[in-house]
Every structure is written in structure tokens, then in C-alpha cells.
Specification:
By secondary structure, the chain is mainly alpha-helical. About 70% of the residues lie in helices and about 5% in strands. It has a two-stranded antiparallel ribbon. It comes from Caenorhabditis remanei.
């Protein structure tokens, strides 16, 4: 869109009878504010909460299946006839989501390097929704357990993608002074998901043989609004700057941050970009002859990161800690199933007892 501006130049010699100069027409591009009206803090908060809901809140689905087995077992026995086969099917249903998480993390790393942060977050959230819907079909379609198992696998892939790319995106969206608070919301969502899954599986809610399958569909209430918000949010400004898409990056930055914070964040990103270019530029030997250029791309960036001792030490400590944090998720599934049978069925404990036992 253009604005036409015209004005008439004054002629200092008009009294001499000379003809006046013609009107001058100037076409200038209309400057449109691409940023929607409203508070940048509110827009940032909505995107942050949406990413957390599509990733760490889905621990709800792990927590809920830990307590639903007594309510679901009558259905599984009607399908598989023996307890052994029913237990095996339940174990596969529970563990499939964990395998999906591992797959989703690797996919997110590849996609985010080539296509930015937003694409894997959006695709992952869509997979989250599809997975939950398939899980809800467990009692309503033929081979429902297989469909639900595939649904949990798909949901795990989706969460892995959002959890990996979304965490990076969350570290890039807010101003420096708010980054810690923004990343802490992921822990909040994880706690809410765990507690919500335990609560909704109580007898007073959905922990009954008639309603247990609906407990696994509760995350749709937060996933659908989250998907809408994420789809309408712009890409990470930092990624756009690193891709030399400066105009888009500045518009995206104004979406998430106030003008004062924008200036500081842009300066920080440009300094980082300059440092990165300095690391990958062509090396020159002592005689001034150019040596072969370093390979660019994902492999080079990983190697450069690993050469940094501070980064490597922190990475090893994090891997060591996280391995033990999630060890229970991998090795404890069968014990939980057996424990449910020995304690909950034989003793007739209600779900309130299982709820308190899980809190321990």
C-alpha cells in the first residue's frame, strides 16, 4: 500500500511571469504496524502458558494411568480374558508414550535447526491433540487398545517435540530479566499435570469402570486453546535474526516485548550473532594464506559447543541427574501394575488410598 503525497514548489521568480514548476508527486510506502494491539506482556504470557500446557502439563497422562488400572481392568479382562494378557496390554499402553517422548525429542532437534522453533511446536501440539483423541477411542472402536496405544505413542512424540523446541523458544522470547520466571512455568505445569492426573482418577470423578477412559481426554481442554494461540504467534525473534530475516525478527520482537526491552534484546542477539560468525569464519594461517573453510551446519555447531568446557561439564551433570530422575518411569511400570493387583484388588482399597499412596 502506498500514500500519494503531492505539493507545489514555490517559485521565487513567479513575479517575472515565468511558468511555475509542476506539482511534485511522491509515492511513499505505508508503514503498517504489524503488531496487534494489546500488551506485549499479555501476549508473551499466553504463548508461554500455551507451550507449557502442550508439553509438561501432559505428564497428566502418565499420572492418570498410574491410578486408573483398577477401574480399567474389567474392560481389559473382557478383551484379553486372562490377567496376564491384560497386564501386558496395559504395560504396553502405559510405556508407549515414553518411547514416543524419546522419538519426539530427536525429531524436534532436526526440525528446529532447519525450520525454526515454531514449526516443531505447532506440529507437536497437533500430534498431542491427535494422540489424546485416539486414546479416547479405546472402548468405542474395534481393537481399541491398539488404537489407544498408538495414540499414546503419537502423543508422546508430540510432547517430545514441544518439550524440546518449546523450551528453546521459551528461552528466546522473553527479555533477559524474565527468562528465569518463564522457564520456571514449565515446572509449574509439570506439577499441575501430575496432581491433576491423580485427582481426576479418584472415584468421585472419573476413576470408575464406566468413566475411566474419559479421564485420559481431559488435556484436550487446554490443548485446543493452546494450539490456537501458538499458531497465531510469530516465530522466535532470535532464530529470525540468526537467519538474517531482520525485518521479521523486529516485528516478532515487538509482539513479545515492550520497546525498551526490545532494544536490549536486539543488542544482545546481534552481539551473539557477531560472535557466532567470528567462530565460523575462514581461518588464516601465519603466512596470510587461507586454509580450508570450516564446515557449517549442525555438526559444526555441536562440535564447537562441546569444545567449551563449561558447557560440557554442565551437560554431563544434567544428563546424570536427569537419568536418575526418569529412571523410575522406565523400570517401574511392571511393579506398579503388580502392586495395583496385590494391594488394590485384594484389599479393596478405594482410589483415595491410591491417591495418598502416590503422593508418598
Amino acid at each position: 500500500m502506498f500514500i500519494s503525497i503531492f505539493f507545489q514548489l514555490e517559485d521565487s521568480n513567479s513575479e517575472d511571469g515565468k511558468p511555475k514548476p509542476p506539482d511534485v508527486h511522491i509515492r511513499m510506502p505505508r508503514i503498517v504496524n504489524a503488531c496487534p494491539p494489546g500488551s506485549p506482556s499479555l501476549r508473551l504470557a499466553l504463548v508461554v502458558l500455551s507451550i507449557g500446557a502442550a508439553s509438561h502439563f501432559l505428564l497428566f497422562l502418565d499420572s492418570v494411568v498410574d491410578n486408573l488400572l483398577p477401574a480399567a481392568m474389567p474392560f481389559f479382562l473382557s478383551v484379553y480374558e486372562t490377567k496376564e494378557n491384560a497386564n501386558h496390554a496395559w504395560e504396553m499402553l502405559v510405556s508407549s508414550r515414553i518411547y514416543g517422548l524419546a522419538i519426539g525429542c530427536f525429531i524436534a532437534v532436526l526440525l528446529s535447526h532447519q525450520h525454526g522453533r515454531k514449526l516443531p511446536v505447532v506440529v507437536g501440539t497437533i500430534l498431542d491433540v491427535i494422540g489424546v483423541i485416539l486414546t479416547l477411542l479405546i472402548t468405542y472402536v474395534p481393537h481399541g487398545v491398539t488404537v489407544a496405544t498408538m495414540g499414546r505413542l503419537i502423543n508422546g512424540i508430540g510432547q517430545g517435540m514441544v518439550q524440546t523446541a518449546g523450551s528453546v523458544m521459551l528461552s528466546e522470547l522473553p527479555p533477559l530479566k524474565k527468562r528465569g520466571t518463564v522457564l520456571a512455568t514449565l515446572t509449574m505445569w509439570a506439577c499441575m499435570g501430575e496432581l491433576g492426573g491423580m485427582t481426576i482418577s479418584l472415584d468421585e470423578f472419573f476413576g470408575t469402570p464406566e468413566l475411566w477412559q474419559w479421564a485420559m481426554g481431559f488435556p484436550l481442554l487446554v490443548l485446543l486453546p493452546a494450539l490456537y494461540i501458538i499458531c497465531h504467534a510469530p516465530e522466535s525473534p532470535r532464530y529470525l535474526f540468526l537467519e538474517n530475516r531482520e525485518n521479521e525478527a523486529r516485528k516478532a520482537m515487538s509482539y513479545y516485548q515492550s520497546p525498551v526491552d526490545c532494544k536490549q534484546s536486539i543488542e544482545e542477539i546481534l552481539m551473539e550473532k557477531q560472535f557466532t560468525l567470528q567462530m565460523v569464519k575462514e581461518k588464516v594461517d601465519e603466512n596470510g594464506n587461507s586454509s580450508k573453510k570450516e564446515r557449517d551446519g549442525l555438526v559444526t555447531s555441536i562440535i564447537e559447543r562441546l569444545k567449551d568446557g563449561k558447557f560440557t561439564r554442565a551437560l554431563l551433570i544434567a544428563l546424570f541427574v536427569q537419568t536418575f530422575v526418569h529412571l523410575d518411569d522406565w523400570v517401574d511400570i511392571k511393579r506398579k501394575v503388580q502392586n495395583h493387583h496385590k494391594v488394590n484388588f485384594s484389599c479393596g482399597f478405594p482410589t483415595r488410598h491410591r491417591f495418598l499412596k502416590t503422593l508418598d
